[in-house]
């Protein structure tokens, strides 16, 4: 993609619905953290350097990389730092609504509970100072500084259940999400290594989350486990992520159910979940007007950005500016927020039409 197109994609308002906190950490921050832990003798810096710099990783290798990232981002202050940086990075490329997901973690040796992990995340959110952040109905900061209108980003959180977790641990995460609703936690995500754990293990917690009014999105179809894919579609989550390895029957089911799909192009290609961009299911879903949203998944790990994903879609699938704008604006329909937020976002998109030369 040429520079001019990329700049245009950056200037367009965008909605990010599938971003994992620890997958979105800047490489420069990971290096800095690795160097510091290397100096303390906790890790060998050169080992980490090789792993972080590697470009092509299978899904299995990517998930192993997360275990390393989690060692680097263990303590509360680092969680606060990366949250602040990730939100600022999305805001700087004109993401106007961000649903950031993360797996609350417990670590007895440093006194971290799932709740204190999330408190550290919230502290990072409050530390953002380059833009105004709306993180809960009453959380909006001042719109103007010295009389100048400031950029604004809505941030909402999804708590992820890792597929390695037990039913009890999953339930604990759902209860934490309910406890933190007033702070902008709106839903639950199921993620992690798709060949680990069984759907039945998470179902009680997911059912409870739904009964309590939390939104649900599931990583679905990263591997061709058709029985599980079928069960997930029949659960009717509000959205699913990826949808790469569906057989014909499950495609039909998904389309009939009209469940919106979070599409992560670079992630799918880099992890070899999809062998080539020209056979990506985006094309079929887009042609059929199936609800979908372009997302980054792990912008740090895959060295991408939401603007980059739009640029990639534009060049791979010959989308013009109007189509890209429409695609970005349509994502508002699938956000896990109320009609008031949706109306504000639509107004933001409308206001940008002239500037974007549409
Ligand atoms: C490549 N596609 C993917 N498929 C499945 N799970 C993924 C993922 N990318 C990220 N995660 C999940 O998100 C965690 C990192 O962020 P948090 O520690 O939660 O902030 C990973 O450990 C994994 O469980």
UniProtKB/TrEMBL annotation:
Residues forming coiled coils: none
GO biological-process terms attached to the record: adenosine catabolic process; inosine biosynthetic process; nucleotide metabolic process
Sorted UniProt keywords: Hydrolase, Metal-binding, Nucleotide metabolism, Zinc
Reactions catalysed according to its record: N(6)-methyl-AMP + H2O + H(+) = IMP + methylamine
A Pfam family reported for this protein in Swiss-Prot or TrEMBL: A_deaminase
Cofactor(s) recorded in Swiss-Prot or TrEMBL: Zn(2+)
GO molecular function, one term: adenosine deaminase activity
Occurrences of domain Adenosine deaminase (ranges): 13-346
Similarity comment: Belongs to the metallo-dependent hydrolases superfamily. Adenosine and AMP deaminases family.
Name this protein carries in UniProt: Adenosine deaminase domain-containing protein
Organism name: Hibiscus syriacus
């Amino acid at each position: 993609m040429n520079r001019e197109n990329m700049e245009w994609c950056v200037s367009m308002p965008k909605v990010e619905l599938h971003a994992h906190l620890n997958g979105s950490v800047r490489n420069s921050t990971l290096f800095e953290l690795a160097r510091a832990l290397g100096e303390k003798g906790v890790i060998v810096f050169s080992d980490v350097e090789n792993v972080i710099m590697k470009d092509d990783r299978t899904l299995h290798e990517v998930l192993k990389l997360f275990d390393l990232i989690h060692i680097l981002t263990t303590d509360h202050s680092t969680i606060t730092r990366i949250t602040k940086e990730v939100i600022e990075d999305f805001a700087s490329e004109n993401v106007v609504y961000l649903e950031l997901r993360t797996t609350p973690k417990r670590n007895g040796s440093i006194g971290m509970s799932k709740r204190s992990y999330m408190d550290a995340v919230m502290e990072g959110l409050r530390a953002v100072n380059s833009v105004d952040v709306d993180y809960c109905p009453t959380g909006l900061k001042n719109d103007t500084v010295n009389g100048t209108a400031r950029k604004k980003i809505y941030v909402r959180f999804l708590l992820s259940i890792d597929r390695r977790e037990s039913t009890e641990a999953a339930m604990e995460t759902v209860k934490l999400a309910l406890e933190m609703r007033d702070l902008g936690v709106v839903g639950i995500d199921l993620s992690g290594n798709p060949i680990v754990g069984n759907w039945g293990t998470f179902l009680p917690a997911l059912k409870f989350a739904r009964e309590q009014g939390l939104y649900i999105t599931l990583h679905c179809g990263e591997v061709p486990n058709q029985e599980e894919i079928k069960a997930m579609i029949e659960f009717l989550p509000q959205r699913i992520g990826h949808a790469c390895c569906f057989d014909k029957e499950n495609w039909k089911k998904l389309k009939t159910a009209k469940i919106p799909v979070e599409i992560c192009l670079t992630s799918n290609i880099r992890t070899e979940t999809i062998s080539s961009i020209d056979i990506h299911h985006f094309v079929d879903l887009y042609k059929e007007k199936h609800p979908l949203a372009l997302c980054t998944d792990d912008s740090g790990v895959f060295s991408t950005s939401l603007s980059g994903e739009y640029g990639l879609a534009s060049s791979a699938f010959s989308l013009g500016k109007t189509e890209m704008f429409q695609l970005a604006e349509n994502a508002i329909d699938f956000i896990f927020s109320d009609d008031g937020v949706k109306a504000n976002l639509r107004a933001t998109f409308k206001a940008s039409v002239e500037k974007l030369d549409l």
